[in-house]
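Appendix B. Chain record.
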Amino acid sequence: MYGDGIGSLNIYLETNSSKNLVWSLSGNKESKWQQGIAPFKSDDIHHILIEGVRGDNDRGDIALVIYNISKFRQYILVF
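Structure tokens predicted for this chain:
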């Protein structure tokens, strides 16, 4: 998440009945990787939605690596 035009990076858990924000990071983080853990619990069929939101201008980049999505631990580790 680099640049003065960065808005936010959001991760949602969506089921048939709801869409819940489970993790978010906003603003310029310079050229350093940030780590985040997005815990979730769902016994229903679900989707994981990743949303990048632009800020005030188009001068910025977001890179995303999803390291682990585990059915048993139920978290997403984001770098």
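Further analysis of this model is presented in Appendix C.
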